[in-house]
Write a sequence for this structure.
């Protein structure tokens, strides 16, 4: 399976596909034909150059926002429900969080790459001296979309549902395991006490839990809360956000309207429509016909060819954005073959990553060497990937004792042949092409690699049981990430440290970072971790995949960022007609 | 006749149980844990607590032995309370109710068109056996038959709907995305007809191939019969011989097939639905099996197998209707 559901913005997830956005149900990319490495030089026209590069025009100086209009956004899967407390769905959270639902704490979407917290339902909060007690002062002027006032009771009811062992909220509960207690101090104040200080405490626990109305959910049992048949919120969310839910037609559309009663600055758009279009080839076609304003998923091949479609060029902005996601190849360090750092480095240097990026992925992705959001201060841009250098790689292998002594074309050490299998997820075409490239390149260096295609269910099972030699996958995250889940030695069992990476120095850095509340000092610690990981090469870092979006030119106020799109800030030109309904 | 019917109907009960049981066991053998699949949604590097898993198992009855699970699933079916899906917890009747109408509409139309083309085509071929015309029809039919549906569907979309070549048809859905609810009845009919033309073409372009071959061989057999020779000898015009006398008898095989097509009517086509963005039974079934959503899969299988059995029964009865020589029950022919 190419793609999986992702959780909240700051959560790690895995994608088995290489050049795919991380969502469930996204169609597989067909193998793009090899392209000449060099692209035509950009034209002199800066507007065209920006379009080619996928840069949106700056937000400033785009006129005065006016209310009105409707925008139709492509969504390429029908979410299982719109209640992200019970369904940890990528689209479900993209189209509800901070749009229909709000959390105690918001994230400033325009603050790239920091994405600092900002008040949302809590107008302010304090953290106690011992970094354990958060006290949130709630806004007093907030009403739910059904007119009921918002208060501490709603916060309490929501967190009770999350922590109720009988609800399907396990994905959120895992972030609240260290929560000691929470209570309402008065009608507009709530207090959360943690067992240990933790730098991520504001992210998933408070910025990603949608606050739901107590008058709807408090009376439901856990089992009733899970089911759409008994919990109306699963199909029809009632929140406090700038948009209010109107209708959801399965596999067709989800429709929102502007919340006229919103406590903050009201949204400009009258209506926001998410249209479900699953086939990735159809999105741009619908856009050309005026039936879609925002195409959220385009194949990289179609992206390149789009320059030949004047209708798209005239009517649409292109946005190429690189999320906090990266693809990697992991070497299972529990296998004796991969325990030598020189061997891992040699393997990296035998893979021509740049050629693959340019030819197969159309040069739309970015090389990276960092576990964190590539633009964040936790990544040191001075660290670059080891070069593609087969000669140096062979030297490293010889140094590590791998020599072909019996002349069969495969190196051996202490009588053991250098042969291993590379586990890939069965449905990703791009991954298969990468595997083929690796196999050929390794064979020339005297390493025998077999490709093992495995269905996703089996793939994830074998990852957790460490039953593989090497594998490839993607990590997705938000602006802040806790590296412990992937890199701490204790995460080998029960965490996501599938390759059994264990390094006391790394463990110490991770532990220090987790309790460091000063961002700059924490970034410095994480940069050290990056240097260490780069030195050790337990992964071969590949690239940051691209999000390729088309946005109609009549829409203004658009800025690409990690937090999806800020639809409440979008507005459309009043004189511009909405795209004409397909002619009858 | 009635006795025969009753016997056949009673026989359906063990058959039905057998089919659902096999389906249930195969689902279990697939070895995908629906609870873990649902909770984990792949693998987000988070640990799902054992309690949460156990709790869901209880909700889904998965903590019970397999025969209890099976008995509860079938018991629910028999009591006509279909329950709710596991995926989104909506009532199964509602979920199927959304997907079924469009699928039935498409497949009934497609089947009707296929018969309307296949019968004359088969007769045409049979009456010109081994001539150039017969061979041309044969080659043509086989060529159509061998074209993959996804390819034809995509071509139709690109050439007739994308606007890159012709812009005659809409790209997606079985009705207009905007303003469908506000349309009058006739407008709605027109809108749906306009939207389903291409999906229908993609469904039907080769559906008549097999049918026309059955028709051809049935006809060939019929025109060699004595009564045809007699009719010809009596000087009955050839047109009447073929279309009145021979045709009636040669219809038997393809009318029998009609009953067998009954389950196909609700099955839907995953490929056509995906290409044309239609939410029908095909996509629903595929999604249900993927999860796997036990209650939904069992319901769909029960539905299909019931229709299959009814279809077989129906075609047996149709035999008797079309061919007076066939009767069921004690009376001698």
């Amino acid at each position: 399976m190419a793609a999986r559901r992702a959780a909240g913005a700051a959560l790690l997830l895995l994608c088995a596909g290489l050049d795919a956005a991380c969502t469930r149900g996204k169609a597989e990319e067909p193998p793009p034909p090899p392209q000449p490495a060099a692209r035509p030089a950009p034209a002199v026209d800066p507007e065209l150059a920006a379009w080619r590069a996928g840069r949106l025009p700056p937000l400033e100086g785009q006129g005065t926002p006016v209310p009105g209009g409707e925008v139709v956004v492509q969504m390429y899967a029908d979410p299982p429900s719109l209640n992200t407390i019970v369904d940890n769905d990528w689209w479900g959270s993209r189209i509800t969080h901070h749009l229909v639902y709000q959390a105690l704490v918001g994230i400033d979407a325009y603050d790239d790459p920091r994405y600092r917290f900002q008040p949302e339902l809590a107008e302010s909060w304090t953290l106690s001296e011992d970094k354990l007690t958060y006290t949130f002062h709630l806004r007093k002027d907030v009403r739910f979309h059904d007119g009921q006032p918002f208060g501490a009771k709603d916060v309490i009811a929501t967190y009770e549902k999350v922590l109720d062992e009988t609800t399907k909220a396990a994905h959120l509960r895992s972030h609240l395991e260290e929560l000691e207690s929470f209570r309402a101090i008065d009608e507009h104040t709530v207090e959360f006490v943690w067992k240990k200080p933790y730098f991520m405490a504001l992210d998933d626990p408070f910025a990603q839990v949608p606050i739901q109305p107590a008058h709807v959910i408090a009376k439901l049992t856990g089992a009733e809360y899970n089911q759409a048949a008994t919990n109306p919120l699963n199909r029809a969310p009632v929140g406090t956000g700038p948009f209010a839910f109107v209708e959801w037609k399965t596999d067709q559309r989800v429709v929102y309207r502007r919340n006229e009663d919103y406590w903050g600055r009201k949204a400009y758009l009258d209506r926001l429509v998410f249209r479900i279009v699953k086939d990735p080839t159809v999105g741009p076609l619908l856009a050309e016909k005026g039936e879609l304003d925002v195409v959220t998923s385009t194949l990289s091949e179609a992206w390149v060819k789009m320059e030949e479609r004047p209708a798209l060029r005239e009517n649409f902005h292109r946005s190429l954005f690189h999320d906090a996601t990266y693809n990697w190849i992991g070497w299972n360090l529990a296998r004796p073959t991969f325990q030598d750092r020189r061997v891992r480095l040699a393997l990296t240097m035998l893979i021509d990553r740049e050629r693959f990026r340019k030819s197969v992925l159309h040069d739309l992705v970015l090389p990276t060497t960092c576990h964190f959001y590539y633009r964040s201060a936790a990544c040191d841009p001075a660290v670059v990937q080891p070069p593609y250098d087969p000669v140096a790689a062979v030297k490293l292998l010889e140094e590590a004792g791998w020599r072909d002594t019996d002349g069969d074309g495969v190196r051996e050490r202490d009588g053991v042949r250098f042969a291993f299998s590379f586990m890939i997820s069965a449905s990703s075409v791009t991954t298969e092409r990468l595997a083929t490239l690796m196999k050929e390149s390794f064979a020339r260096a005297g390493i025998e690699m077999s490709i093992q295609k495995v269905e996703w269910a089996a793939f994830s099972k074998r990852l957790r049981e460490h039953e593989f030699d090497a594998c490839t996958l993607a990590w997705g995250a938000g602006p802040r990430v806790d590296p412990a889940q992937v890199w701490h030695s204790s995460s080998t069992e029960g965490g996501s440290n599938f390759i059994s990476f264990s390094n006391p120095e790394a463990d110490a850095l991770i532990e220090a970072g987790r309790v460091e509340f000063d961002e700059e000092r924490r970034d410095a610690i994480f940069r050290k971790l990056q240097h260490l990981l780069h030195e050790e090469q337990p992964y071969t870092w590949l690239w940051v995949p691209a999000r390729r979006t088309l946005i109609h030119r009549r829409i203004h106020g658009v800025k690409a960022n990690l937090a999806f799109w800020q639809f409440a800030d979008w507005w459309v030109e009043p004189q511009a007609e909405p795209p004409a309904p397909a002619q009858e | 006749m009635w006795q025969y019917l009753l016997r056949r109907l009673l026989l359906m009960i063990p058959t039905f149980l057998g089919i659902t049981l096999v389906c249930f066991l195969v689902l279990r053998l697939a070895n995908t844990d629906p609870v873990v699949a649902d909770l984990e949604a792949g693998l987000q590097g988070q640990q799902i607590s054992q309690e949460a898993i156990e709790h869901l198992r209880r909700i889904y009855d998965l903590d019970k032995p397999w025969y209890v699970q099976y008995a509860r699933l079938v018991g629910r079916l028999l009591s006509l309370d279909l329950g709710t899906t596991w995926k989104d917890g909506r009532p199964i009747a509602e979920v199927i109710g959304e997907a079924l109408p469009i699928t039935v509409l498409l497949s009934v139309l497609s089947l009707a068109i296929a018969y309307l083309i296949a019968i004359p085509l088969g007769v045409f071929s049979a009456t010109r056996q081994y001539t150039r015309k017969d061979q041309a029809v044969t080659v043509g039919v086989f060529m159509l038959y061998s074209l993959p549906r996804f390819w034809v569907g995509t071509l139709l979309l690109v050439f007739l709907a994308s606007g890159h070549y012709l812009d005659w048809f809409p790209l997606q859905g079985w009705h207009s995305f905007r303003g469908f609810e506000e349309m009058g009845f006739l407008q709605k009919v027109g809108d749906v007809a306009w939207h389903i033309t291409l999906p229908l073409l993609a469904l039907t372009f080769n559906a008549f191939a097999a049918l026309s071959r059955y028709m051809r061989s049935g006809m060939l057999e019929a025109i060699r019969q004595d009564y045809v020779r007699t009719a010809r000898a009596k000087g009955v015009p050839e047109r009447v011989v073929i279309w009145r006398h021979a045709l009636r008898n040669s219809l038997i095989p393809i009318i029998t097939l009609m009953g067998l097509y009954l389950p196909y009517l609700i099955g839907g086509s995953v490929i056509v639905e995906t290409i044309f963005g239609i939410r029908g039974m095909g996509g629903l079934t595929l999604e249900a099996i993927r999860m796997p959503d036990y209650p939904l899969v069992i319901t769909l299988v029960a539905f299909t197998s019931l229709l299959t059995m009814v279809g077989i029964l129906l075609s047996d009865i149709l035999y008797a209707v079309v061919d007076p020589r066939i009767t069921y029950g004690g009376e001698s022919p």
Summary: Confidence is low (pLDDT under 50) at residues 41-47 of chain B. The two ends of chain B are 12 Å apart (CA to CA).
